[in-house]
Design a protein that fits this description.
Layout: H1 2-7, H2 14-20, H3 25-31, H4 35-40, H5 44-53, H6 61-93, H7 95-117, H8 125-151, H9 158-174
């Protein structure tokens, strides 16, 4: 991230990243299949899935997702707030990364749904669809909060902003 932030995304080569990490160009590609993956890759999905699935199974799905999401976000902020802010701002400012961000959100949604419903082949189709829809709207609300947070240079409290985004979702659903 340091090189990308200093030089810009397009001006930084994978070879330069490899040299800074003191590994070979091929080693970088063993762990990151594309240049975009160097910026977009994170370890947040397993944490999010763990926090959501740790919630009581009898809890309404929307509550389960919201509470798990907020808990995971609190942990990420405690450990990586400045990195999350820098990465988000960088992604928003880089068209190639913005375009690929949807893929990472889709992968997150897929991981959450799989954890909630099991393999698609054995999942109840209606339950799985509900999980896809509910997970998708919760992730979209969280993404809107993260974007607003980054646009305001990390000044608002991201957890409060995310709670607000999720509350808007609940309000609009209740109409």
């Amino acid at each position: 991230m340091r090189l990308f932030l200093e030089r810009g995304y397009d001006a930084t080569t994978v070879s330069e990243v490899a040299a800074a990490a003191e590994v070979s160009h091929m080693t970088v590609f063993r762990y990151f299949p594309t240049k975009e993956a160097l910026v977009l890759a994170d370890d947040y999905d397993p944490l999010l899935v763990e926090r959501i699935t740790a919630r009581p199974a009898g809890e309404p799905l929307l509550c389960r997702l919201q509470a798990g999401l907020l808990q995971a976000l609190a942990e990420v902020l405690a450990a990586d707030r400045e990195l999350l802010l820098a990465r988000t701002r960088f992604i928003l400012a880089t068209p190639a990364l913005r375009a690929r961000q949807w893929e990472t959100q889709y992968a997150t949604q897929q991981a959450v749904v799989a954890a909630l419903c099991g393999p698609s082949a054995t999942a109840d189709p209606e339950q799985e669809f509900r999980a896809w829809v509910t997970t998708g709207v919760c992730l979209a609300a969280a993404a809107a909060a993260i974007i607003r947070w980054a646009q305001q240079d990390g000044r608002p409290d991201l957890l409060d902003l995310t709670r607000h985004a999720l509350a808007i979702l609940a309000e609009e659903t209740a109409r």
